[in-house]
């Protein structure tokens, strides 16, 4: 029977429960490796003014303390670029070694050349790297003008690529749907193709100079556009033999539940398809609030395990205790642990079968009594009032408990 089913469906990947990462090179950002051979990296960006050295350094420390692994700062001027050197020194004094990334925007070549001395990665936006004919309507480009601007981009960009190569640092080619260059808009329209070609133009220049420490992003605030752009980018790079890692994110996702859901709706499907090597959830909130969202996305896809995975039934007429209250108590007692799956299920009718191979189970047995499980094995019954304590004891017995800090 199983063989018949397998013959019918073949080994179709629709039935594959593993995520297969798109193979990429490894790009080092400081001491953090990014690429398909490594865990997906969580990053964010401070919103303090880079010129306020103390405040910016404190913002970076808060992000690192929250679990952020790479931090970006904005550098709109040479003064900002120089300030990053002071921020770096202050961080070193405080014992923080986190890799730093500088965001460089409009006509930013001089800024990029300066800030590269202080950071591990520079992010450029192809749409803003050179202002090509600002103010001109996008139906004004001739082939000669298109090529002339391409040549200006190449000659302006090359010194940065050479310096990146000399210093063995990384570059993010960070395309933004909202700031595509005029000539890309003219040629490809406001489309994923235009975004991809914007990045490819810069990738080809790097390739010609044998520079490969490249990470690419294709951000958009509209999730379907972002999804299409990343998929097309991954496909185009693979087809042309460029195996660079991808940085995923939805820009201007907003705040609160919707901001989190919108970011997840963009990032998670790509990760599930194996696309993406580092992520940022952009929220209009304190940057450190982005980090738990990143980890939740990664944990829920099984890509990183940084906390306890709770499996809980939705409760129904069979539920033998206040499930919401008990789950809350179990979470309070165990959320500092890592790497465990704990199930809280309302009844023994369906609970044990549906615990999804959890390491431990807390299951309603009869009114006022719960059963504890280790894996699929029922360990014993205890009164509900002692359930959480007994669960902790069981985890301790197995040597998997650590005291909260
Ligand atoms: Fe209902 Fe039991 Fe299923 Fe929970 S495990 S939803 S209590 S049948």
Automatic annotation (TrEMBL):
Name this polypeptide is given: 4-hydroxy-3-methylbut-2-en-1-yl diphosphate synthase
GO biological process, one term: isopentenyl diphosphate biosynthetic process, methylerythritol 4-phosphate pathway
Cofactor list: [4Fe-4S] cluster
Gene: gcpE
Record has Phosphoprotein as a keyword: no
Pfam families (alphabetical): GcpE (PF04551), GcpE_C (PF26540)
Gene3D superfamilies: Dihydropteroate synthase-like, Sulfite Reductase Hemoprotein, domain 1
Domain annotation IspG TIM-barrel: ranges: 24-295
UniProt-recorded Gene Ontology molecular function terms: 4 iron, 4 sulfur cluster binding; 4-hydroxy-3-methylbut-2-en-1-yl diphosphate synthase activity (ferredoxin); iron ion binding
InterPro entries, sorted: Dihydropteroate_synth-like_sf, IspG_bac, IspG_bac-typ, IspG_C, IspG_TIM, NO2/SO3_Rdtase_4Fe4S_sf
Alphabetized UniProt keyword annotations: 4Fe-4S, Iron, Iron-sulfur, Isoprene biosynthesis, Metal-binding, Oxidoreductase, Plastid
Domain spans labelled IspG C-terminal: 309-396
